[in-house]
Hints:
The chain has 2 domains: 15-250, Type I PLP-dependent aspartate aminotransferase-like (Major domain) (Aspartate Aminotransferase, domain 2, 3-Layer(aba) Sandwich); 254-353, Alpha-Beta Complex (Aspartate Aminotransferase, domain 1). 36% of the residues lie in helices and 17% in strands. The protein has helices spanning 15-26, 43-59, 74-86, 98-108, 220-225, 235-250, 253-274, 299-312, 337-353; strands at 4-5, 66-71, 91-95, 113-118, 140-143, 145-146, 151-152, 163-166, 181-187, 198-203, 278-280, 291-296, 315-316, 327-330. Helix 4 links the parallel strand 3 and strand 4. Bound molecules: pyridoxal-5'-phosphate.
Amino acid sequence: xxxxxxxxxxxxxxxxxxxxxxxxxxxxxxxxxxxxxxxxxxxxxxxxxxxxxxxxxxxxxxxxxxxxxxxxxxxxxxxxxxxxxxxxxxxxxxxxxxxxxxxxxxxxxxxxxxxxxxxxxxxxxxxxxxxxxxxxxxxxxxxxxxxxxxxxxxxxxxxxxxxxxxxxxxxxxxxxxxxxxxxxxxxxxxxxxxxxxxxxxxxxxxxxxxxxxxxxxxxxxxxxxxxxxxxxxxxxxxxxxxxxxxxxxxxxxxxxxxxxxxxxxxxxxxxxxxxxxxxxxxxxxxxxxxxxxxxxxxxxxxxxxxxxxxxxxxxxxxxxxxxxxxxxxxxxxxxxxxxxxxxxxxxxxxxxxx
Length: 354
Ligand SMILES: *Cc1c(COP(=O)(O)O)cnc(C)c1O
């Protein structure tokens, strides 16, 4: 039986997507070749890339200023590509978690960075708010969902400054205005597909202004012109991402999946708040719908027992991030409600037998 996989990334994908991806590796479109051995210049693969771009555009309701790119190097390479492509004089960053702080460090190698707000001193337990955005910065970089700490932006800043958003762990999990971002990006391995591809959504109007002579692979304009085929794309990761986007469309798109994601998160947070053995970590108003972090109040007494119980319940991947400890249940789009219910049942059972 397939386990309920709460890993933060690479993470769970819908069973039908795994089946279809596996089948395509064995024999793609019943044509006697594997998906991973056909040319990326073949008609078959060009159709995959076209649909992967157009379906993402449709699901995010993007306007024609925005282009969807499938690149490599993970979200991590975007930490560099973004300042290379957009930073002329100064950029503003919000330090809301460990990936946000890495993004800052990388950008500082390229230009002048102003950190407008940070929740680091409070162990990143909330989303910084109420900061003033200088009007003279080239862009503001934010992280919509902090994967390690379990916080998520509910209300995005209103500003004329172009917003760049790391959406690695909550892209396409909710219905928001994706057109509001100059750039949004996500490593696929959390909520989109397998590791190896990164989705980058770029508003073309903000490109070509820095005067930098960019290395080709780091230049968004090159990838836009070549329709994400400037070099050999990661064919398996792109195809599996497409399968997952098709699955998402069947769930009712972002509106449909948001409803399901809210039900799942509420079920788990309610149990964390109700069950006297557990406690949440973050400010309630900032709690993530994707990564639910919690602690046992008495680890010494209950940890071994709880860990055995969830393992016996067919659950994997709920350990907290290595520097944070406790527990983290990543309940991305593909996690079924039954999986969350299984975890909640174990928490209830622990309380009963405590
Ligand atoms: C995982 C993650 C990253 C890093 O992604 P890679 O694809 O491994 O480079 C960056 N930002 C956030 C918010 C993440 O969750």
